[in-house]
Amino acid sequence: MIIGLPKEIKNNENRVAITPAGVFELVKNKHTVFVQKNAGFNSGFTDNDYIEAGATILDSIEEVYDKADMIVKVKEPIEQEYGLIKEGQIVFTYFHFASSKPLTDAMIDSKSICIAYETVEDKNGTLPLLTPMSEVAGRMAVQQGAKYLEKPIKGKGILLGGVPGVQPGKVLILGAGVVGVQAAKMAAGLGAHVTIMDVNMDRLRYVNDVMPSHVVTEFSNEYNVRKHIKTHDLIIGGVLIKGAKAPKLITKSMLKEMHPGTVLVDVAVDQGGCMETTKPTTHENPTFIIDDIVHYCVANMPGAVPYTSTIALTNVTLPYVINIANKGWEKACEENKGLQKGLNIAYGEVIYKDILESVH
Ligand SMILES: NC(=O)C1=CN([C@@H]2O[C@H](COP(=O)(O)OP(=O)(O)OC[C@H]3O[C@@H](n4cnc5c(N)ncnc54)[C@H](O)[C@@H]3O)[C@@H](O)[C@H]2O)C=CC1
Ligand SMILES: CC(=O)C(=O)O
Ligand SMILES: [Mg+2]
């Protein structure tokens, strides 16, 4: 198969979808890999690294899309790329269709085969191609939140860990999945007081078992959320309903209940966000303020730490890339029901029906 690796063009997206080690494996499996010039540069890989691994470098993104049977990417195609995608071409990447009707319509019109990292499942029903980026984003959420709590950038002016003689800050985490647990771990490590909420009791039991005693669990319902937003300094959103829009757990009117300078980090922004006032932001302009509450809603948080994220992502995606390349998408999906869950749109037909309920 001919595989194309374009350079990401989303704002400050510095990851790349295949490393030279991945190219080496694909070439070993008798595939051809075309890499756009400088595609890996921001993740620490030169064109020469790719050439030595067996790839051919192409100057433009147009040539990469034109030649490839399968495009392997990190982020969803953006408007400039819509017209480059061809009928029957496989596009393997994060799509997050539930949060974007224009993207969904464009991919339906393209008649391409859209396989979304974020809905591929493993045998336990978890999301193996989302997990490593949720690990990155969960850890980063605390790092970013701690920064935006500083007064000069309009935060409340609290040091999360406190100091001897002064109480630590309080972190509220919505969702005890991958993002939530990684965020809790970082916040606890800083010495903050952490409350983590979920509707899944098994997740809360797990957190209760593995976390130190200054991480407390509480069942997620509106009453409890309303109680905690009044007292917590940093609120992190990490809820997910697979393939669907995130439920809005924090409404606009609730912002008035919070202390001015409270920081909201809505990691779930790529599925529409779990806070009503969330709108996607970029690393260039990551925050905005509504009712004195700082909102951080960057939809590609891991893009800012590509040296970590590219390796973490490609460690898990490469076996799927090789499998699709070796067998073709139909056979690969037929044989692996978890990969089949990743098939969101094919030849203009929406296969993953939850998308339709969310975007219309
Ligand atoms: N902004 C970014 O750069 C990134 C965003 N993400 C996003 O973060 C979100 C979370 O991802 P994961 O942690 O991997 O998902 P996950 O599936 O591991 O965890 C989600 C948790 O939310 C819980 N949940 C569902 N409804 C809830 C409710 N009403 N109240 C409280 N909890 C509820 C679920 O029970 C589950 O435990 C996803 O939307 C994902 O796409 C992930 C990586 C990067
Ligand atoms: C999961 C995702 O959207 C990201 O890593 O950017
Ligand atoms: Mg995202």
Supply database-style keywords:
alpha/beta; Rossmann fold; 2 domains; seven-stranded mixed β-sheet; 13 helices; globular; binds 1,4-dihydronicotinamide adenine dinucleotide; binds pyruvic acid; binds magnesium ion
What do you see in this structure?
Substrate binds at residues 15, 75. This is Alanine dehydrogenase. Residues 4-137 form the Alanine dehydrogenase/pyridine nucleotide transhydrogenase N-terminal domain. By secondary structure, the protein is α/β, with parallel strands linked by helices. The protein has 2 domains: 2-120 and 306-359, Rossmann fold; 131-303, 3-Layer(aba) Sandwich (Rossmann fold), CATH 3.40.50.720. It has 13 helices and 15 strands. The strands form 2 sheets. An 8-stranded mixed β-sheet has the order 3-2-1-4-5-6-14-15, sandwiched between helices. A 7-stranded mixed β-sheet has the order 9-8-7-10-11-13-12, sandwiched between helices. A hairpin with a 2-residue loop joins strand 14 (343-346) and strand 15. The longest helix is centred in the C-terminal third of the chain and has 22 residues, at 306-327. The mean pLDDT is 97. The structure holds 1,4-dihydronicotinamide adenine dinucleotide, pyruvic acid (PYR) and magnesium ion. Pyruvic acid is lined by residues 94, 130, 133, 270, 300, 302. 1,4-dihydronicotinamide adenine dinucleotide (NAI) binds next to helix 6, helix 7 and strand 8.
